[in-house]
From TrEMBL:
Protein's UniProt name: FMN reductase
One family name in Pfam for this protein: FMN_red
InterPro entries xrefs: Flavoprotein-like_sf, FMN_Rdtase-like_dom, NAD(P)H-dep_reductase
Taxonomic source organism: Virgisporangium aurantiacum
GO molecular function ontology, one term from the record: FMN binding
NADPH-dependent FMN reductase-like domain residues: 7-144
One GO cellular component term: cytosol
């Protein structure tokens, strides 16, 4: 096995003014650091110009390069009307071959469902892209009550434990799939 540390990309999928996404992302990055991930690329979609017509240009090439250079990707996504943000769909569709044989994890948040309905839709989208989605679920329900004034989770134990499981699964799949892609390019 290639012992090089895995490179993790964390995509912040909400782009609204006053969004909660960065707080959730900050918490998850702390968990990734605690799990030993030191090489982390934070891809905040609010800071990128990804054209809706998927014709390239703007930050499209930069985005696809960043996905391509990752060994594992985590999407930090809210739930909007039982789905996921439109900006995230544009980002997903902007990269195509770069997703193939990539391990994907989800950290979701929202109201009653903690974003899980958005994640179930994303699992279906990512099946089409030949990715491997992680079984673990990290969901923060009623997210507006979850963080204190300093940006820390008020009751972190359950979420921290779920994040640890997700990162363990990503580590296994990240190494296995990186080695496999090196041995033979994915041709499915
Ligand atoms: C347009 C919109 C639709 C929403 N729909 C849902 C929903 O269907 N289910 C849910 O649990 N929360 C829903 N919410 C609550 C969001 O998940 C919550 O406000 C979250 O903080 C949004 O993420 P953001 O602040 O990073 O944009 C919705 C919020 C918005 C703005």
């Amino acid at each position: 096995m290639n012992p090089e540390p895995l490179r993790l990309a964390v995509v912040i999928a909400s782009v609204r003014k006053d969004r909660v996404g960065p707080s959730v992302g900050r918490w998850f990055l702390g968990r990734a650091d605690a799990a030993g991930f030191r090489d982390v690329d934070i891809i905040d979609l609010a800071g990128l110009n990804l054209p809706d017509d998927l014709a390239g240009g703007g930050d499209s090439e930069l985005f696809t390069k960043r996905i391509d250079s990752a060994d594992a990707v985590v999407l930090v996504t809210p739930e909007y009307n039982r789905g996921y943000p439109g900006a995230l769909k544009t980002a997903i569709d902007t990269a195509l071959p770069e997703w193939r044989a990539m391990p994907i994890g989800f950290v979701s948040y929202g109201g009653v469902s903690g974003g899980l309905r958005a994640v179930e839709q994303l699992r279906s989208v990512f099946a089409e892209l030949h990715t491997v989605t992680m079984q673990a679920t990290v969901g923060l329900p009623y997210v507006w009550d979850q963080f204190d004034d300093t940006g820390d989770l008020r009751e972190p134990s359950r979420a921290n434990s779920a994040a640890t499981t997700l990162l363990r699964q990503l580590t296994w799949w990240g190494h296995i799939l990186r080695d496999a892609r090196t041995a033979a390019p994915y041709n499915g």
